[in-house]
Every structure is written in C-alpha cells, then in structure tokens.
Amino acid sequence: MSGKTVLYVEDNEFNLKMVRQLLARTAYRLIEATDGESGVATALKELPDLILMDIQLPKMSGLEATRQLRADPKTAAIPIIVITSFALSGDDQKAKDAGATAYMAKPYSPRELLQTIRNLLPEQ
Amino acid sequence: MSKEEATLPDGDLISSPAPSGWEERIVHFLLTRSPLGGLVRWVAAIKASVHGKLLAGYLLVTLLVIGIGALSLQTISKMSTQGQLLDEAHERVHWSQEIQHALAMQMNFTAMALLLKSETTVENILRENNRFNNTLARLEKAAQPEEIELIQRIRAAQGEALTTVADIANLIRDGKVEEAMQLQHSKQYPLYRRIEDFVTQLVERERNKMDRLRSSVAAADRNTLILMASSAAALMLLALLLGFVISWSFILPVQKAHGFLSEVAKGNFAATIDVPNRDEFGALAAHMNHMSQELHRLYDSQHQASQELQRLNEQLQQASKAKSNFLANMSHELRTPMNAILGFVEMVLDEIYGEVPPHLREPLTDIQTNGKHLLRLINDVLDLSKIEAGRMELVLAEYSVQDVVETVRTSLQSLALEKGLEFAAAVGDNIPVALGDPKRITQCLMNLVGNALKFTKHGRVTVWVEQQGENLLFRVSDTGIGIPKEELENIFGEFQQVDTAITREFTGTGLGLNITKKFVEMHGGRIWVESELGQGSTFFFNLPLRTTAVEVT
C-alpha cells in the first residue's frame, strides 16, 4: 500500500474511529495523534501528505501546533485542515492566521470532510 | 499628602498674595512693610460684623465732614461781622467828612455875611449848623465808646462857635462890621480850627481802625484757606486709609479662601484656612475648614468604596473571563460527541457500513433530525450565553446583501419546496457593498425565514431587502398562522413561542428571535413585527448600511 498519508490529531476516540472507518474504504492511509505535542512530533517524523488538526487539544492547542508545523521547513508545505468550533466567532480567522489551508466547523459531515480532503489531496 | 506640607503657609492674614502687577506690588509693600498691615489685622480682629465695620468707617468720615463744615460756617460768619464793622467805619468816616464840609460852609457863609454886610446869610449858616448837628448826632449814635468824648468836645466847640456866629450876626446887624470881623478872627477861626482838629482826629482814628480790620480780615482769609485745604487733605487721607484698611481686611480673607479652595479642589483636604477675622469672614473660614474636614472624610470613605469596587470589578472581570473560557471549552466539548453522533449516523445512512435495512432507515433519520435539532439548541444557548456575558463581538467585514439573501434562499429553498410553499427572495437595485458581520446577519435572516417557513402551512414566504438612506431594511413576510396582539410584545423574549400547543407542532429552540434581536441591536439596528392572527406576519429589521461602532447590549 503506497496510499497518501493523512494525519488526524484528535483526542476523542470516537471521532478518531469515525474518520478511521471513513478513510478505510479509500486509498488514504491514516495515522493518528491524540495531543498537540505528539501531533507535531508525528508530523515531523512521518511527514504526512495532509493533516487534520482539531483546534482544542491537550498539551498544546491545534493552533499552536499548526503554527509550529508551518514554521518548520520540513512541514511548512503540508496542507492542514483545522477543525474549529462553529459558535466561536473569530475561530476561522485564528485558524487562517495560524496557517491553516482550510477549516471545517465541528460538527462536520463526514461526507463533506472527505470531499475537502479529496480537493486538497487527490486520492490517486 | 502629609500634614506638614499640606497646611497653608501660616495663619497670618498677610502672606498669600504673590505680587505680580505694580498695583499689587504696592499693596503688598503697604501690607508687609508699613504699619497699615498691623492696622488691617487689627480691623480684621475687631469683633464686629462686616456691616458694622463699614458703617463705622463711613460714619467717621461723615462726622469729620460735618465738623469741617461747622468750622467753615463759623469762619464765614466771623468774616461777615468784620465786613460789617468795616462798612460802619466807612460810614463814620463819611459822616465826619460831611461834618468837615458843613464846618467849612459855616466859615464860608460867615465870611460872606461879613463881606456883604448882610445878616441874611446867617440863615444859611444856621442851616449848615443843623446839618452839622444832625450828622454829629448820627455819628455819636454809631460811635465807639472811646470816641464819645471826642464827639462831645466837638459838640461843645460847635455850640460855642454857634454863639460866636450869633454874636457876629448881631454886630453886623448893628453895623459894627469891624468888631464883627475882629470877633471872627479872634474867636470863630480858632474855634473852627479846634473842631477841625477834633474831626481830623476822629477820621484818623476811624482810618486806623479800618486798617486794623482790613489786615485782620486778610489774616483770617489766609488762615481759613489753610484750614480748609489741610482739612480736605486730612479728610481725603483718612477716607483713603479707612477704605484701604477696611477693604483689605475683607479682601485678604477672600484671597486666602481662594487659595484654600484651590488646594481643596486639588484634593488637598488636610489644608486649613486661618484668618484673624472675627466677622462674617471669620465665620466663613471656620465653615470652610469644617467643610474641608467633611470632604476629607467623604473622600476617604469614597476612596475606600471605590477601592472595594475596583477589587470587586477585578474579581468580576476574572469571573467573566473564566465564564468566557468555560463557554469556549464547553462549546467545543459539546460539539465533539455531537460530531461523532451525527457523523456515524450520516456514515450509516451513506451505507459506508453496508446496506441499511429499509425498516431501520426511518429511526436512523429520526436520530439524525433530533441530533441536528440538539445541535441548533446548543448553538443558540451558547450564542445567547456569550451575548449575555458581553463576550459576543461582531466581526465586521464588507459584504454583499445579495450574497447574504442568496445564501439564505439556497439553504431554505428545499424546506419551502417540501412544504409546497411559494418562496421568493429579492434585493432592491443598486445596493452598495455594506459593512457589518455577514455571518451574524445571515444567521438573523435565516432565523426569520426559517420561522416563517415553519409557521406557514399554505401560501408564500417573501424576503425583500431595500436601501433606505443610510440604512438597510430587511422584510420577511408570510401567510402563516400570525401572532396574537397580546403576544407581539413578548415575541422577542427568551423561550417565547406563541403557545405550547404550537411549540409541540412546530419544533424550535425559542431562542432564535431573541438572538436575532440582539445581533440586530449590536449592529445599531431595530427589529419589529406586524401581524394579524390567521393572516400572517411580517418581520422587519433595519441595519446601518455601514456599521461603525459595535454596541454590546
């Protein structure tokens, strides 16, 4: 399997499981991290093709992790989709400022998430 | 501020005014370097009212004026007496001269009688003699005692002279002209010369007297002039002195009060005002000290209260910040399980896990519908909490009204289609790019249109936006159930729906209108509704075309 790698940084196991099952029938390979710090470490180690980053994470926020990845030349070019909270105005702007390629409001539709991933990173 | 540096220079009345102009410098010099300063203090310390002091000053000057007036009157009356005396002396001199004249005439007529050897002219002599006697009598009447003797001598001599004249007349009548001439030479001439001497003496005396009177009048004149001039000068000086002393005994405490009040205004409540005045100004100074103490006390308690308030405010701010953080976290925490619930249901319905048996599709769709409703509730509650906490801020950006309306139309078109309702949304021509929070404005319009579609069973829902001057007017009308009059007022409150029966039929959070109203007001706009039960409702809201100041309600 030489599919493209997607890193999902999320601390909720059900959401992880959902995306895992969503991507299971696609050509994407999913790797996971459950907090900001390990998210950055995994990204630097694995150099995935795309990153899904939840905005609120233990140890380090998704925004901070995004900023660090953008600052590192090895990961600077990797597209990052930041998952924000709908009701908090300004989240979108904060995500953009941190360097997000795109953002999706939680709760997101799995169908739309897959579409966004495909737009940024063609499956084949 | 410490007590030492707070107290005004000293209790002395003469200290505060800092001289600047030359007038002030003179006053300052007079008050500090001359005895006037002491006098001012003395007047200030007199225990009398301001009215009393002023009255005393005026009375003193007035009394002096009256005194000087009396003195002048006395001098004038004295001068007039002397004038009268002078007049009388003049008159006496005149009479004496008349006597001399009568005497000369008598001599003359005697000589004529002798020359003409006629006694008829003697009658003329008698006439002159009468004139002489009358004048002498008048002179005697007006004469001074020391002159009486001289006058009596004149009369005696005249009597003798008259006897001689009679003798001469007899001699002439008898034709003894020679004898008559002799008598005239030997007796009449010497007598007349004597009388002449006496009269001359009298005139001399009067002249001397007149000279004395004249010089005395001149001296009196001079003295009066000097007296009047010096009195006027003294009076003026006194008036100036009294004016200066009394007025400065009032001005100085006022100046001190001015300085004192400036200190108090600067917040120096420890300052005290100290004036020697024992009049109204003294009482005022005492009151001002009392006031300053009271202000000090008030200021202290106020200061304490404000510190307490500040402390409370800081606590509140911290609490508010904590609440805001809690809301942000809560929002995300609630969304995370919702994400999984709605996501899994969608994936099941999308048949990612395989085919869905037909009898399970309906309950799964029910789960999805209610999950979405729960999400809307969560969103509304969180929005409202943020607004109530004052943490909701508009994100101002330029937006197109057309785009906003289009977004709402496309989102809700399917719902209208499902219910078989006519749904039209349009925007007036040439509306310029607007400034506001497009996300929140979209949310407002979405709420109103969503409600209209929800509460309308038949007919149509129309959306119309137009520009009205500097404002945008949004209008959403429906042909729905309408709102009873008594409910129109409450419709924008929290958890308000027309009644519970309707709520059961038309699901909704009951927060949409309240949130919409708050967002409209945050933009500086207004929302209102017109409705008739059973006929439908029209909701209006207006927004500034360009929102500048964001007001948080």
Describe the structure.
The complex is a heterodimer of chains A (124) and B (553). Chain A is built from five helices and five strands, in the order βαβαβαβαβα. Chain A is an alpha/beta fold. Chain A has a five-stranded parallel β-sheet with strand order 2-1-3-4-5, sandwiched between helices. In chain A, helix 4 links the parallel strand 4 (80-85) and strand 5. The mean pLDDT of chain A is 86. Chain B has helices at 3-6, 22-33, 35-45, 50-116, 121-142, 145-173, 177-265, 280-349, 358-388, 401-419, 438-454, 500-505, 512-522, and strands at 397-399, 422-427, 434-436, 460-468, 471-478, 526-532, 536-544. In chain B, the strands form two sheets. Chain B has a five-stranded mixed β-sheet. Chain B is built from 13 helices and seven strands. Chain B is rod-shaped. Chain B has 553 residues and is α+β, with helices and mostly antiparallel strands. Chain A binds chain B through residues 12, 14-15, 17-18, 21-22, 25, 55-56, 85-90, 93, 106-111, and chain B through 328-329, 331-332, 335-340, 342-344, 346-347, 350, 352-353, 375, 378-379, 382-383, 386, 392-395, 437, 439-440.
Instruction: Please provide the count of β strands of chain B.
Output: 7
Please, what is the average pLDDT of chain A? 86
User: What integer value in Å does the Rg of chain A equal?
Assistant: 13 Å
The most extensive interface, with participating residues per chain, is: A-B, 23 and 31 residues
Query: Uncertain segments of chain A of ≥5 residues (pLDDT<50)?
Result: none
For the termini of chain A, the CA-CA separation is 12 Å
For the biggest sheet of chain B, the summary is: 5 strands, mixed
Major sheet of chain A, described briefly?
5 strands, parallel
The whole-angstrom Rg of chain B is: 64 Å
Unreliable residue runs of chain B:
1-11, 497-506
Give the structural class of chain B: alpha+beta
Mean pLDDT of chain B: 83
Strand runs of chain A, count: 5
